[in-house]
Amino acid sequence: MKHFDLIIRTFTVTVLSVFSISGFSQEKQADKTVISVVGTGDIMLGSNYPSNANLPVNDGSELMRNAKDILKDADITFGNLEGCFLDSGGYKKSCKSGCYYFRMPDRYVNYLVDAGYDLINIANNHMGDFGAPGRTNTVKVLREAGLNYAGLENICETAVFEKDGIKYGFCGFAPNSGTVKITNINNAKMIISRLKSECDIVIVSFHGGAEGKSNNRVTRKTETFYGENRGNVYEFAHAAVDAGADIVFGHGPHVVRAAELYSDRFIIYSMGNFCTAGSFDISGISGYAPAVKVFVDKEGKFVKGQIFSFLQKDKTGPVSDQNNSAAKEIKRLTELDFPQTGLIISNEGIIERKNDMLVENTDSCNSLQDSLPVNTSDCILTVQNIIDFSKQFLGIPYRSGSKGVKSFDCSGFTSFVFGSFGYDIGANCISQIQQGIKVVREELQSGDLVFFKGRNDKSNRAGHVGIVVSNDEDGNIKFIHACNRGVIIDELNKSPYYQRRYITGLRILTES
Question: What span, in angstroms and rounded, lies between the C-alpha atoms of 448 and 467?
Answer without folding.
Answer: 6
